[in-house]
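Try it yourself: sequence plus S-adenosylmethionine, in.
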Amino acid sequence: MQEQEIYLIGLIHNIGLLKEEMAIHFPNWRFNYGVHGFVTFRSEVEYKLPDLREMNITFSLVKGVSLFRGTWAELDQRREHFEKKHSPVSTHYWNLLEEKGEMGDRKVRGTVFDIIRIANDDYILGVRMQVRGDFAPYSGSSPIPMPEEAPSRAYQKLGEVFKHFRPLVAHEEVFLDIGCSPGGSTFYLMEKGFRVVGVDPIPVDPIITEKFPEGFLQLGQSFVELKKKHLLGLPPVGWIVLDVELPIFNTLPRLLKLVSKLDSVIGLIVTVKMNLEMSVDKVEEVDELLRNANFTDIKKGQLPSHNREYCIIAKKRD
Ligand SMILES: C[S@@+](CC[C@H](N)C(=O)[O-])C[C@H]1O[C@@H](n2cnc3c(N)ncnc32)[C@H](O)[C@@H]1O
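Structure, out:
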């Protein structure tokens, strides 16, 4: 029986998490090999490319089907044959040896090729389904330029969230930025024209109020004590960012309790740190907490700035 070889590319520093996730959720896929940020599995079930793309694998950036493995010269020889068969709209080059990717057109929707250099003269040609906006810099370098004034790298993290997940946020939206200090995420949100209510016992960097004299207010307290009454008189919060580096099973239920009292909240952006308290087998439990609070539209994924963490964008369905 012909088996399908499925490849996944993950963030190079989180590849262990990807392997763990695969062992838990796809025990029937047999691990084939892995190198750098690249792993392959053999599956007896043959998947169609759109179905493969839709599979929610938190720690993988892309998923495709291997077509061919060989030297550069062999690949060159067979390329036309595969192009005729699959008509790719773009081709991406992944040089895993140099941790460099030379991405083709990531804005087109359709079948794309990945040419992946896994060893000196050893290449894989793979095919997968790409949806407009996919991006996958796997080596950890952020596609978001960091402004000199931005107080922290959370600026880039938020930028990557918007670039990758493209949450539909109305222009006049108000964000509650929990754990806002020193202010990278707030800086990004303000720059995009949103209004921000920050929550953090530590004051944000003064650059925030210097650069954005209007539209920002900080509640200098722990969010654990935050009650609906503290937000009275402020513009209603539509979205919440939670990035506090505290145990998720402690913070998220508290946040959801507060949110249950705030009808205006429609979306959450949550960073989940993987640590002793939060392991790969508990990813589903976090989703369950969100679903039980009516946040049923859940997207998860890896952003280039992530190191042993992942991000959730959860929305209430309209
Ligand atoms: C990783 S930093 C967040 C980075 C920040 N979002 C930025 O854009 O620069 C974590 C922050 O969470 C804050 N924090 C920790 N526990 C908190 C709590 N219970 N309530 C509010 N903020 C808290 C810390 O004071 C710290 O400033």
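One thing you can check immediately is this: The chain has two domains: 4-130, 154-315.
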